[in-house]
Amino acid sequence: MSMIKPWKLISLLFILQLLAGCESKLEQTQKTITQQVLTTEQSLERLGTAIETGSIRNARLLSEYAHVLKQQKPELTRIADLIAEDATRKGPLYENLAMRLNDVRAETVTLDNAGSLLDELTRINEASKQSLFNDALTDPINVLADMSDGQLARVGAISQYAEQSSGDGADYGAGSQMVGNPNYGNWQSGSNGTSFWQWYGMYRMLGDLTGRVGYSSWSQNRRYSYYNDYGRSRYTSPKQSVKQAAVETKTRKSFQRKGQSFSSPYAKTRSGSAGLSRSSYTPTKTASSYSKPKKSFTSSNKATSKTGSFRNSGSRTSRGVSRGK
Prior knowledge:
Blueprint: H1 6-52, H2 57-72, H3 77-84, H4 92-106, H5 114-127, H6 130-136, H7 138-147, H8 160-166, E1 185-189, E2 195-199, H9 207-210, H10 215-221, H11 226-231, H12 238-257, H13 278-281
Antiparallel strand pairs: 1-2
Helix pairs in contact: 1-4, 1-5, 2-3, 2-7, 4-5
């Protein structure tokens, strides 16, 4: 048997060392993600416990608002109870976080997708913070407030009267804070090629209040909501984000064909927030250090110190179950 030439032996050893190094890096990456999954599980569990024990202020307030609205307008009992589920573990806000964590668990970790998985875990972990979840609940609270015809105060946003007086944006009716939020519905394409908001079956009753909302009009004329202006990057799954981007791209191309300009509905933060936690104004710090993550999310949450036009005008709402007009 002829002897292996020295240079071939050196090349073989180099390849073996390289493969061993790659395997070691992958193992380290898998361990890091496993640890981050555990950390995120614990954060989500703490949030669930806080919701159940009444430690999330706006969860308590959401339940109170639903109770008051049902007494005021018994015909809205069904939708009030449904919206109030966000004050529980069974609500779409909490359940969506749990489903996203399960999606990460189901992924096979590779060096190519490690960065994206870590970034998604970071977003879920941040969304599980009690202060951020408390802020996210302002949208369903304010939907109930608007249904009460001013008998209940908005929370974390300027009053309904101040918003209407500002002349900014279009009034899509009670429930408009949830339009664009994939936890409650999605954008569907009509036969004419335009997109419109379609509520999930259980929330279909909100369509009677908002009417038919077209994406083209809404993207240019929407008013403030917590999800669309501050919470989108944290409370949107990668799959949901891809769908949002597809609708936006389709609409932009349609405008271009007509020689019209189009700007993203998330191009700027709408005015109208008040009293949110500092966490909501802080951009997400991704955890990726393995590879450049794929752009699963289109972040619109730039750190900003801008306040609503009415932030200090005396139209800022109180935080109790009181008249909010």
